[in-house]
Amino acid sequence: MTETDIEHSNVTGIFADNDLSGNVEKMYENMEIQPEVFTYGNRILKELETRFREIDEIAEYNQLKVIKAMQECRVGEACLLGTTGYGYDDMGRDTLEAVYAKVFHTEDALVRPQITCGTHALALALMSNLRPGDELLSPVGKPYDTLEEVIGIRPSQGSLAEYGITYRQVDLLADGSFDYEGIGNAINDRTKLVTIQRSKGYQTRPTFSVEQIGALIAFIKKRKPEVICMVDNCYGEFVETREPSDVGADMVVGSLIKNPGGGLAPIGGYIAGKKSCVEHAAYRLTSPGLGKEVGASLGILKDFYQGLFLAPTVTASALKGAVFAANLYERLGFDVIPGGSESRHDIIQAITFHNPESVIAFCQGIQAAAPVDSHVAPQAADMPGYDSQVIMAAGAFVSGSSIELSADAPIRPPYAVYFQGGLTWQHAKFGILKTLQFLVNKGLVNKKEFKCSNL
Ligand SMILES: *Cc1c(COP(=O)(O)O)cnc(C)c1O
């Protein structure tokens, strides 16, 4: 081909008569995003080029990390097949667990479809590593809502409290930092396990960086070296180049329908860590005497492997969405956590609206952008494990998957919405523009704000 041929081929096809951006804008208009909303979004995006490049660089590092682990574990085509029945000698399952251990730089890992969700993975890690008379310590304030019932902070059937395991909590200081003095005083003879939640969850505190978690663990280990430090890693995987297990955590725990499942895992959870910790969990998940030896993988392994392979770039897409949403709404005067220019340690973006109507409009916008169930409008409802009504927006391929574009909010002051996910950046962008469009349509945001928002 000559140079003119190449030039010519660039202007054929769907963009033959219009310039590219004009077509994209039209497409958004077709999908009921007004030009003012589209243009405002793109103005915000112009300022985010450096941030997006940084996110891509982290994804590049983590992509290589995952490939390296798969290669070193000699993942072969036979690993993608599953077993049935007892699942003895399930090579694909055992190899996948070795891959997870390599990715997280831990001695061992338990990665199973029989772990039903993140809460189950955390409950399993806690219940298997604690014994009656032991004490659990959270040095980072109140844990995730569903963990309250696991621990027995809210009385609950089968909780740790029912088994005589006590719980102590040290709240963060007013500025969101660790209360080292309080933590030092809380550690006692019975302190067996410390649980550190990386992500903010449904709270408006900062998410901790891997570095901060490392400093906290170092402090705790200095006081009591034998204490088990567990990190609830939900939503944090692949956001940085290091994981909490790289800075001293004895166990990292998470859900496969969040970051590490890459959107493909249809169920599952993982526990990666010290051999003894993982073994305890395995004997609890299956049975004493059986441990990791049983547990058929059925037909699920290909999705687990491929999901892990995609996880670094999927996480990057979700992160771009979070950064975009933060900047878009910050400019309109809303409180956002983290702030638009703050560094990121998880994929969750909180936006505080101070009224339930905006929270509901935001969630309905996310739903309207979905590939699945875009025609339904989410409503607030009671949910098991949560103590206030919750609204959840998700049009997901995997039900409830929050690595897919989704938003949820407990209906309680300060009426903050928690937004996360996006298997592709393009979908995340569309979803965020939809939320703004819904707020505009309902009169909750005035388009005039776009002009005077000091851009
Ligand atoms: C999602 C989440 C959990 C619980 O996971 P589920 O899969 O919803 O049970 C626990 N901790 C944190 C920080 C989470 O984000």
User: What order do the SSEs take from the amino end to the carboxyl end, as H and E?
Assistant: HHHHHEHEHEHEHEEEHHEEHEEEHH
Strand content: 5-15%
Beta strand count: 12
Proportion of residues in helical segments: 40-55%
Topology:
Elements: H1 3-10, H2 20-30, H3 35-46, H4 49-72, H5 91-103, E1 108-112, H6 118-129, E2 135-138, H7 145-151, E3 166-169, H8 180-186, E4 191-197, H9 210-223, E5 228-232, E6 251-255, E7 269-273, H10 275-285, H11 301-331, E8 335-337, E9 349-352, H12 356-368, E10 390-394, E11 406-410, E12 416-420, H13 425-441, H14 448-451
Parallel strand pairs: 2-3, 2-4, 4-5, 5-6
Antiparallel strand pairs: 1-7, 6-7, 8-9, 9-12, 10-11, 11-12
Helix pairs in contact: 4-5, 4-11, 6-10, 11-13, 12-13
Bound molecules: pyridoxal-5'-phosphate.
Residues 117-119, 122, 144, 146, 197, 199, 201, 232, 234-235, 255 line the site of pyridoxal-5'-phosphate.
What does this molecule look like?
By secondary structure, this protein is of the alpha/beta class. 40% of the residues lie in helices and 13% in strands. The strands form 2 sheets. It has a 7-stranded mixed sheet with strand order 1-7-6-5-4-2-3, with helices on both faces. A 5-stranded antiparallel sheet has the order 8-9-12-11-10, covered by helices on one side. The protein is globular. The chain starts with a helix and ends with a helix. The model is unreliable at 1-13 (pLDDT under 50). The site of pyridoxal-5'-phosphate has 13 residues, from α6.
